Amino acid sequence: MASRTNRLDVHTVQRLRQYEHSHCNRLGSAVLGRRLYSIKQVISQPEFEQLVQQIRELTARLLRLEQLFGIEASTPLSEQRYETSQFRTAEAQPGPQRPPLPVPPPPPPAPAYTSSPRAAPLSDDLESRIGSHWLNRIGIAAVLIGVSFFLNYAFENNWIGPSARVVIGLLAGIAVVLWSERFRKCGYSIFSYSLKAVGIGVLYLSLWASFQVYHLLPSNIVFAAMIVVTASTCALAVAQNAEVIAIFAIAGGFATPALLSTGENHEIVLFSYLALLDVALLALTVTKPWRRIAVLGFVGTLIYYIGWYDTFYSRSQLTPTLIFATLFFAIFATAPLLILHHDSDRRIPLALAFANGVTYFLQGYVMLISISSTETAWFALLLATFYLLLVRIKAEASDTNAENSLRLMHLALAMGLITVAIPIRLEAHAITIGWLVESAALLWVAGRLKSDLLTTFSLAALALGLVRLLFIDDFPLLSLFFNSRMAVYAIAVAVLGYAAYQNAGHENETRRTTAGVALILLNVVALRGLSLEVSDYYARQMTVTPGHPWSPTEFLQRRSILIARDFTYSALWMAHGAMLMIVGFWRGSAFVRWQALVLIALTTVKVFVYDTSQLDHIYRIISFVALGMLLLAISFAYQRNWIKLPSANMS
Q1: Are residues 623 and 648 located together in one domain of the fold?
Q2: Which of 106, 354, 608, 614 falls between 20 and 30 A from 548, CA-CA?
Q3: C-alpha closest to that of 213 among 259, 249, 244, 245
């Protein structure tokens, strides 16, 4: 037993010694001195001296224990230099001297890099989200459903009267909301928000039951009570800076008209309430950086508008409906500007701006197109003007790039509305002319402002005009050459030439490529227009030819007309190729000369393959002679080197 006590005492002494080394030697005498001095500032001088004396006595007892068990003594605490100039105490009895302890070697140098903590596995993160969020939400739904089942069971058995049921529901909802604050203060925010959702839902359901189920209160009183619940929830969200509570308020606010609906048409009341609710959400967007609030408001308003329009709208309600649609549009056109003031993320503001503009235009189009296409076109142009004004408004966003993106979105919407207004008001080939003229105007503005975006819009309008011209338009012809089709083709050729001129020589390679494509399309459109005129010229001759269509005379006459037409095609294409070659030599453009060579090559193939077998002797002779002379002239021009051919300039 004594030996066991000995071992325990030795162990105790070693622990005390380790404590002394770790708290005295390692920290240093200066630190201990500062601590003693700080203690002296809060106690009296006698108390301080008594404390120092107790420390010395403890140190002496520790040294005696070390000597008793043969343990090498450490430097007594009294010999360490913790005295300061501000205080001195009586000298303690010096303990036995011992050699100083060896200094431990310095720690190895830290590596040049530190390993980052290992990321939590995806499965752990998914498990955490399921456990803390999804189970929480499912629990809310389960509690609400269970409470509703219980109340329904109690009501069916007449355990509780109607008035008491409503009162119990209201008190329970308020109690749950208040009880949730206890968990929020303890740090369980998510659980606290879940309880608030339950309590707020119970309040709305209780008010709904008081009107729709038990008819205890009139609709206006219940409507006012629901507004109070929504406003209180919003105030709570702002006070606690909790976006999720604001979402609860939005859900309740938009659920109110549906909960109190009687199936009757109350357009003014419904849309006035929605407008006030949207303005309140806009105010929240100003005070808090909550981007999703505006999106939820837009979606909720759109759902109610579509539902009401599909059920109740008639032409007699055009004016108030258009006024409310314009009011909603103005509210949500302002929202992206306010969101960017707080947040640099441009995705939600851009999506909201685009959806708002498209939705409002479709609303106006559906209401106005059945009345007048002219008014519908003016509606689109006025909306485009509004977006052009928005382009000039500075949003004062936190990020300049995000602000520029929003301005470009407004500009794109304006250009799109102008493009759409043309086919709404015009008809047939006038639509094509409108798009071509719009393209030229945008090209001019883009050149003045040096805007690549406007150039892109102008090319898009030009593409629309060309597609309609080449594949859709059908022109009634009253005369040859001087007709509406030739006029539209001439406008298209002029716009393509202007596009090639605007983009040629640009420092951007894409713009230079655009100029080349425009020049190729210019020649294609010009050739197609001229070829159609040739075709119509000979078609008219076949139409007015008298006699039976299947008589030998009629057949020979038709064949001679077709031969003349095919010969005219060859002559036209050769002439156009020769003109391109002349222009290419004159302007020193290898690109134009290559177009001429390709066209002449196609004409050569036609002459040798088709004209040889189809044309009469006279036309055949003229075709070959003319083609040969043209080819010899071009070859002679190249051999004599009448012009210094550029080696690399293809533009």
Answers
A1: yes
A2: 614
A3: 259
Q: Are residues 526 and 581 in the same domain?
A: no
Q: How many CB atoms lie within 10 A of CB 518?
A: 21
Greater model confidence, 439 or 475: 439
Q: Hey, how many other C-beta atoms are within 10 angstroms of the C-beta on 176?
A: 19
460: confidence class by pLDDT, cuts 50, 70, 90: very high
Domain limits for position 49:
2-79
Q: Are 406 and 336 in contact (CB under 8 A)?
A: yes
Q: What distance in Å separates the CA atoms of residue 429 and residue 423, rounded to the nearest whole number?
A: 10
In a domain, 102, yes or no: no
Q: Looking only at Cα atoms, what is the longest distance across the chain?
A: 149
The residues, any chain, with a CB within 8 Å of residue 599's CB and separated by 6 or more, are 523, 527, 573, 576, 577, 580
Contact by Cβ (8 Å): 410, 387:
yes
Q: Would you say residue 367 has pLDDT above 90?
A: yes
99 burial via Cβ count (<10 Å: 0-12, 13-18, 19+): exposed
Identify the domain boundary among 478, 510, 544.
544
Residue 561 shares a structural domain with residue 633: yes
Helical segments of 369-451, H only:
373-392, 400-425, 429-449
Which tokens in the block code for residue 16?
Answer: 């005390």
Amino acid making up residue 102: P
d(CA 488, CA 508) in angstroms, rounded, equals: 31
At residue 91, the pLDDT reads 44
Identify the three-state secondary structure at position 124.
helix
Residue 398 has pLDDT above 50, yes or no: yes
DSSP state of 104: P
Residue type, 153: Y
Within this chain, do residues 534 and 565 fall inside the same structural domain, yes or no?
no
The answer on 538 and 472 residing in a single domain is: yes
DSSP readout, 486-523?
HHHHHHHHHHHHHHHHHHTT-SSHHHHHHHHHHHHHHH
Number of domains in the chain: 4
Alpha-carbon distance of 307 to 76, in angstroms, equals: 90
DSSP state of 370: T
Element (H, E) at 600: helix 590-606
For residues 578 and 527, membership in a common domain is answered with: no
The two structure tokens encoding residue 297: 């408001």
Look up residue 621 and give its DSSP letter: H
pLDDT band at 52 (very low <50, low <70, confident <90, very high): confident
Contact 567, 622 (CB under 8 A): yes
pLDDT for residue 174 is more than 90: yes
pLDDT in tens, 281-336: 999 988 888 888 999 999 999 999 999 999 999 999 999 999 999 999 999 999 99
Instruction: Give the total residue count for the chain.
Output: 651
Among 262, 278, 299, which residue terminates a domain? Answer: 262
Same domain, residue pair 508 and 608: no
What does the pLDDT look like over 381-397, one tens digit per residue? 999 999 999 998 876 66
Return the bridge partners of 84, or none: 87
Nearest of 374, 499, 385 to residue 447 by alpha carbon: 499
Q: Which residues have C-beta within 8 Å of that of residue 590, sequence separation ≥ 6?
A: 584, 645, 646, 649, 650
Q: How far apart, in whole angstroms, are the C-alpha atoms of residue 302 and residue 237?
A: 24
State the number of CA atoms in the 13 A half-sphere of 395 facing the CB.
30
Q: Encoding tokens for residue 214?
A: 């038990």
Q: Looking at the DSSP assignment, which residues form a beta bridge with residue 87?
A: 84
CA dist., res. 53 & res. 500, Å (int) = 101
258 and 147 fall within a common domain: yes
Instruction: Give the model confidence (pLDDT) of 108-142 as tens digits.
Output: 554 444 444 444 454 557 777 676 667 776 776 78
User: Tell me, what amino acid is at 225?
Assistant: A
Q: What's at 173, amino acid-wise?
A: G
Does residue 12 lie in a domain region? yes
